[in-house]
Amino acid sequence: MNDRAQWVCELAGLIAAVAGVVVVAVALWSGLGAGLALLAVSLPLLVLGNLRKGD
Q1: Tell me: the pLDDT tens digits for 5-24?
Q2: Cα 23 to chain centroid, rounded
Q3: 22-32: pLDDT as tens digits
Q4: For residue 9, what are the contacts with CB-CB under 8 A and spacing of at least 6?
Q5: Euclidean distance between CA atoms 8 and 6, whole angstroms
Q6: Degrees to nearest 5, angle at CA 52 with 49 and 55
Q7: For residues 45 and 42, what is the distance between their CA atoms, to the nearest angstrom?
């Protein structure tokens, strides 16, 4: 394999690795965002439930 073909293969591998890292990061961030959204919705409901329970 000549130097140019090896360089192209290495570059393609690097691009694939970076794309994989980006996909994993986006998936983790989406999961984190969904968890935070559920937490933001559940906290007011919990507070309202406790306030009504005290009546």
Answers
A1: 888 888 888 889 889 888 88
A2: 8
A3: 888 888 888 88
A4: 1
A5: 5
A6: 150
A7: 5
Give the integer Cα–Cα distance in Å for 54 and 35: 28
Alpha helices in 1-55 (DSSP H): 3-54
Coil, strand or helix at 34: helix
Length of the chain: 55
d(CA 24, CA 30): 10
How far apart CA 53 and CA 13 sit, in angstroms, is 59
